[in-house]
Amino acid sequence: MRLYVDSAKCSGCNACRVACSLDLFGENNPKKAALVIAPRFPAPGVYEVKVCTQCGDCAAVCPTEAIKLNDKGAYYVDFAECNLCEACVPECPEGVMFVRNELANTAWKCDLCGDCVSVCGTSALWIAEKEPVAV
Amino acid sequence: MNGYGGQILRVNLTTGKITKEATPPDVVRDFIGGRGFGAYFLFKEIPRGADPLGAANKLIISSGPLSGLMIPGAGKCDFTTKSPLTGGYASASMGGHFTAEIKYAGLDSIILEGISPKPVYLFIDDDKVELRDAADLWGKGTIAVEKHFKEKLGEEFQVAVIGPGGENGVSYACINHDFGRQAGRGGVGTVMGVKKVKAIVIHGTKSISVADVAAYRKAGMALYKACKDAEGLKDWTRYGTTIVTSWCDEVGALPTRNFSAGSFEGGKGLYGQTMREKIVITDKGCFGCPSPCGKYSRSKKYNINVEGPEYETIGLMGSNLGIDDIEAVAQANLLCDDLGIDTISAGNAIGWAMECYEKGILTKKDTDGLELKFGNIEATFELIEKIARREGFGALLADGVKRASQKVGQGSEKFAIHVKGMEQSAYATHNATAMLLAYMTCDVGAHHNRSWAITYDLQVGRDKVVPEKVARVIWLQNFRPMFDVLGACRLQWVELGIDRDLYCPALEAITGVHRTWEDLEKVGARIWNLTRLYWARENEGFGRQWDMPSPRFYEEAPKTGATKGQITRFEDVNTLLDMYYEQRGWTTDGLPAPATLEQLGLAELIT
Amino acid sequence: MSATLRPSGALRSYIGGKDEIAVEAGHTVRETLSALNIPPEVIALVVVNEQQQSKDYVIQEGDVVRVLAVIGGG
User: Fold this and answer.
1) What is the ipTM of this complex?
2) Residue B257 CA to its chain's centroid (Å)
3) Quick check: B324 pLDDT over 70?
4) How near does any CA of chain B get to the CA of C15, in Å?
5) DSSP assignment of B374-411, as one string?
6) For residue range B11-67, what is the model confidence (pLDDT) as tens digits?
7) Looking at residue C74, what is its pLDDT?
8) How many CA within 13 A on the CB side of residue B592?
9) What percent of chain B has pLDDT over 70?
């Protein structure tokens, strides 16, 4: 399973990112969310959203094996085991692997909690089976 | 303090001194936040008789306890000041993301005081607060300046910026944000311009603490579920406020040719469906909003992108000017946004000018050669520019329709459509007595946001003048603006019809304070009376005469449209006020009685 | 012979608090509303099978007619 997004439906409201920071850190701080909303204004006048596709590239490169699989089959960061080496960050094809020292003492990523889907009023986000990647 | 940023930021622009103080708990208790803070600081700190354009006036910018949290529409910011347009209370509510960033920076209010010797912008990055030189930005349009800051500082910075309108002291200059949201009415941008503050840029990385995280998450999720389950969500999201354009035309509420009628023969060119098909590209929302009303649009005809036009702009720059082309309205909208003037006041003032021209009261000699006939799109665009730059004929309109009509005279005061000097917003009220009363008694002047009651008029009987209508208007005035106090949008309740009781457990879980809607409406009544006192304190002889509507609504029945031949009777205007003052606990001349002030806990504050 | 009328939340009090009500085909939306004592003039939007229509649209069998009122306003 993984998170999907249709950027064309995104209104830029950021409810998903508050919900995310609440799930990951118990905090109201969308800067600590595991998805990115990039506004493109005044032109072309759209939002571009990047989400974790659960590809596993981050887990493969993590030297402390801090990126594990949870009960949803999603990769998540075990905060206690992350040593902030940042090896995962450039590996992520979507740019949704986060390290910000001024905000947290750990890397963080999407754990597929689904709260973002619950608060998205335009149904831009949904969770479904991972589609097979063309070889 | 749970739910709050915790500090008030004061910026003395005259001396350059920047200070912070703890957000006072007793002000939180009695006024809660947002617009409540604005009203409190307005009354307490701006000295009696202060010149709105002088150093003693202040601009009070406030977030609320729901702002920046996982609550639908948690994106509202209040801007309060003494109005350069009306000389009374001004409060404008701005959506977008600015209010959330105020909280993340650990603040609840930003108070701008004094006047800067040279153009500056206020830079806030968590605890780093500085006034920086804005010489390079002064004179530039709001779109380019916001783009500049986003590129230079990053997308996480939120920007509030004035345009040439604010710099040139147009009485209804606005403040712009997020490429399409405004603190629009009453000249809040004028005050920012007088203080020589070009922009405020803000970034915060703190988290907002809440009293009970689990209960808050549950209550927030319940609110989002209610919004997503609402029957009209898809329709509202598709059209935003343009959902009412065709309906207003049908019921005679669409202002047409300077409010001379309520229906427009060219209306179809402005309807929501037409607009959606022709120009809309993105549904754009404020912080936390599941029902984005913003319609970000692209006009191929004018080669522009703009957020809007929204219903108000469609009414005042479209039908009110006899213009039936939604793309022309979009261009007028962009001009106003970029130059930084309120589309409502500008459209209303231009409509007045067009009627003067059509009647021969103004000629080309007066209008710098502009042929100000209804429907003249190019003249409208040129006039917007002139207003923003106070150039030639634009300078007359830049002072607002009340002052302009007093200067011009020749009977033009009779069709200056305003209350208390604020231009009426986009609902024609020839025969809709609750809505007329709403405009007459609105606390900032003729604005519709406090008490929107047109459907109620239709349900109960449009011309009825009964105590129940007055009670309805008062209830709406005590209730609706409480969303501006809480720092969240009212449209989820207003448009989606979600159960307002869902907000109470959320507010309690966030702040730790139990409040029912009855408690909140009492705060609403308290603020309402305080700002009424403010008007009286600042305006000699303030009373019933100030609540009078434009004579158009009791003297000139429309000759066309859904309200053809219908007009309110003058006696009814006074009867409405009699009932209103009585139910409010005010004197027969419209001033809060001592017993009312006592009951609302205001007796001490006002001495 | 029937279709379905689904009024927006604020209008449900007109149909006893229910989400939807069966209505006869062959009448206009306007006539159908009047018959239910819903004043047609309070309806801002009519959507039939997810297509916007006017109040003079004649309801066909099987149509799902949603009507939205602007109770709260702007």
Assistant:
1) 0.97
2) 23
3) yes
4) 15
5) TT-HHHHHHHHHHHHHT-THHHHHHT-HHHHHHHH-TT
6) 999 999 999 999 999 999 999 999 999 999 999 999 999 999 999 999 999 999 999
7) 62
8) 24
9) 100
Q: How far is A69 from chain B (nearest CA, A)?
A: 25
Architecture per CATH, domain B7-203, reads as 4-Layer Sandwich (3.60)
In the CATH scheme, what is the code of domain B245-398? 1.10.569.10
* Its pTM surpasses 0.95: yes
CA distance C39 to chain B (A): 7
CB B349 within 8 A of CB B404: yes
Report pLDDT digits (tens) over B108-138: 999 999 999 999 999 999 999 999 999 999 9
3-state SS, residue A6 = coil
Mean pLDDT of B533-544: 97
Query: What is the residue extent of each domain of chain C?
Result: 2-69
Measured at the CA of B359, the angle between CA B353 and CA B364, to 5 degrees, comes to 60
Q: Do C9 and B496 touch (CB under 8 A)?
A: yes
Q: How far apart are CA A98 and CA A89, in angstroms?
A: 7
Look at A27 and B290 and tell me if their CB atoms are within 8 Å: no
- In A35-94, the residues whose Cβ lies within 8 Å of chain B are 38-39, 41-47
Residue B235 contacts C, CB cutoff 8 Å: yes
Burial of B281 (0-12, 13-18, 19+ CB in 10 A): middle
Structure tokens belonging to residue B209: 């603490």
Facing A13 at nearest CB: one of B155, B217, B292: B292
Contact between chains at C45 and B454 (C-beta distance less than 8 A): no
Residue type, position B566, single letter: Q
Fold of the C2-69 domain: Ubiquitin-like (UB roll) (3.10.20)
What does the pLDDT average to over B498-514? 97
Q: Among A6, A7, A10, A11, pick the best mutation site for testing chain B contact (most B Cβ within 10 A).
A: A11
Q: Is the pLDDT of residue C17 over 90?
A: no
Q: Which residues of B touch C71 (CB under 8 A)?
A: 455, 497
B207 vs A27: CB contact, 8 Å cut-off?
yes
| Residue B253 sits at the chain C interface (C-beta within 8 Å) | no
Which architecture, in CATH terms, is B433-599? Orthogonal Bundle (1.10)
pLDDT in tens, B91-108: 999 999 999 999 999 999
Q: Check if B70 contacts A (Cβ < 8 Å).
A: yes
- Residue boundaries of the structural domains of chain B: 7-203, 245-398, 433-599
Chain A hits for B296, CB-CB cut-off 8 Å, are: 41, 45
User: What pLDDT is stored for residue C8 in this prediction?
Assistant: 85
All partners of chain A with 3 or more CB pairs under 8 angstroms: B
Angle between helices B517-538 and B34-45 in degrees, nearest 10: 30
Give the model confidence (pLDDT) of B192-209 as tens digits.
999 999 999 999 999 999
Q: Mark which residues 18-57 of C lie under 8 Å from B by CB.
A: 19, 39, 41-45, 47, 52
Residue with tokens 């519709």: B448
B483 at interface of C, judged by CB pairs closer than 8 A: no
